[in-house]
Amino acid sequence: MVGGLRVAVIGATGVVGGAMVRILEERGFPIASLRLFATARSAGRTVMFCGKAVLVEETGDGVLESDLVLFAGGDDASRRLAWAVAEAGGVAVDNSSTWRMDPRVPLVVPEVNAAALHGHQGVIANPNCVAAALVMALKPIHDAAGIRRCIVATYQSVSGGGADNMRALLEQSRTLLEASDALETGDADRITAAAGTPSPVAFNVRPQWRWEPDGETEEENKIVAETRKILATNIPVSVTAMRVPVMVGHTLVVYLDLDRPLGPDAARAALQGARGVEVLDDPSADLVPTPLLAAGRDPVYVGRFRADRFDPRGLSLVVCSDNLRKGAALNAVQIAEYLLSAGMLRGRGETA
Ligand SMILES: NC(=O)c1ccc[n+]([C@@H]2O[C@H](COP(=O)([O-])OP(=O)(O)OC[C@H]3O[C@@H](n4cnc5c(N)ncnc54)[C@H](OP(=O)(O)O)[C@@H]3O)[C@@H](O)[C@H]2O)c1
Questions:
Q1: Which CATH number fits the domain that encloses residue 267?
Q2: Residue 120 lies in a domain
Q3: Does residue 186 lie within any of the structural domains?
Q4: Separation of CA 266 and ligand 1 centre (Å)
């Protein structure tokens, strides 16, 4: 590739789009030109890339002039423009949930199912931030011992809901600290009055997604469906998703029912060599996965491997990863890197 690609990021003023711009720079992605898009609200702002201020444009047909478009502008932008990018000869890597379950669209975590990219039709989906971390931990264990059933509880940070949610956590925290005596005594009425809601995200643990008629949340259903699509399996997956007052980094507590017993040592060994995974499992040194440790870092951290004392086929583990990086922006850039290395992404007019 001479000169690099024309790259666009939609949603460049958001938390995922901002991380994409930083990661493109960090990894030296070959870029001939970078265009940044958001809504009319942010048009005219600038975002730094490689020491230069890049102007943010309003999202529109200008997007179609790029070879690679990384979408982090939400469902509406992805619905309107992802296939238009493909029709114009570019490749769209989409972070929204719009196209993830579409049979035409590969849903990819490169370390797990890069092969699904071959034969893509120009639109590629990046998974939900929990599903991305989960499959990174499950795949090596599935290969080693076969997973019969997977039960997950999540402790998801507020950045998973975007920049507004991060601001809300900080504002609610400040407000509630003003009523710290009510927090200390557990005075629910005063906490509600101070927060202006009975279920603030600050000092709380709660679901924070649209409810489905079956009592699941939309997030839980996404994690189940996407995990099964990426792993190409029908294994039962059950998820309970919770929002916790953490800024960045999702935590997953996973219980697996396996085909064949796999003790903690063997499970650790299976994950130790896995690309993109770091085993962190030394309770004696207090070294276990936490969201604060994962935030700002690329690996998916896995630890707390424990046998089920009542069932030799049972295994528990804890997974933490940065939802903005491996859960979104990093994974999208890795998809683009794979496409590039496999000759499936090139500048317009270039030949193989
Ligand atoms: N946060 C995560 O951990 C995570 C993980 C995986 C996937 N995702 C997905 O990534 C996308 C971005 O999420 P985020 O967390 O970065 O949200 P965010 O912080 O709220 O940022 C949203 C960005 O999208 C832009 N935008 C909003 N509506 C748009 C439209 N109609 N056309 C073009 N741009 C538009 C916003 O521009 P303005 O500044 O002009 O408002 C902003 O730049 C979402 O689809 C989300 O589901 C997020």
A1: 3.30.360.10
A2: no
A3: no
A4: 40
Same domain? 233 vs 336 = no
Pocket residues: Cβ below 6 A from ligand 1: 10-17, 38-39, 41-42, 59, 72-74, 76-77, 95-96, 129, 159-160, 162-164, 323-324, 327-328
**Cα–Cα distance for residue pair 153/182, rounded to 1 Å:** 29
What secondary structure, in 3-state letters, does 115-150 show? HHHCCCCCEEECCCHHHHHHHHHHHHHHHHHCEEEE
pLDDT given for residue 346 in this prediction = 81
Do 94 and 217 sit in the same domain of this protein? no
- Taking the C-alpha atoms of residue 288 and residue 279, their distance in angstroms, rounded to an integer, is 9
Beta bridge partners of 9: 36, 70
Query: What stretches in the chain show pLDDT beneath 70?
Result: 1-3, 348-352
Other Cβ atoms within 10 Å of 172 Cβ, number: 21
The answer on 225 and 334 residing in a single domain is no
CA 87 to ligand 1 centroid distance, Å: 23
Domain that holds residue 89: 5-98+328-341
pLDDT at 350: 61
Tell me, yes or no, whether 124 lies in a domain.
no
Torsion angles phi and psi, residue 36, rounded to 5: -120, 135
Q: Is 145 exposed, middle or buried (0-12, 13-18, 19+ CB in 10 A)?
A: buried
